[in-house]
Specification:
The chain is built from 3 helices and no strands. With about 90 residues, the protein is mainly α.
């Protein structure tokens, strides 16, 4: 495990590689990954024990798919009713 001076060298190298703007985002993603791993190992994040909630985006996608299916059905019905001219 790195000690004090070694951490400073590691942080300076990371700063040079990723730049100062990307380090906060990199830290957030690393933290989220570690949190997910800990939850997975402890069993907190079991999908079987908790019902899956539908996200806002999933709900919007489902509603749009339903509207699309209704529009297709109406289009097919209107095409069936119109006379065919040849």
């Amino acid at each position: 495990m790195p000690k004090g001076f070694e951490w400073i060298v590691i942080l300076i190298i990371a700063l040079l590689i990723f730049g100062p703007k990307a380090l906060p985002q990199l830290g957030k993603s690393l933290g989220a990954t570690v949190k997910g791993l800990r939850e997975g190992m402890s069993g907190k994040g079991d999908e079987e024990s908790a019902p899956a909630e539908e996200s806002e985006e999933d709900r919007e996608i489902r509603e749009l798919e339903e509207k699309l299916a209704e529009a297709k059905k109406k289009k097919e019905e209107s095409e069936d009713e119109s006379p065919i001219s040849e």
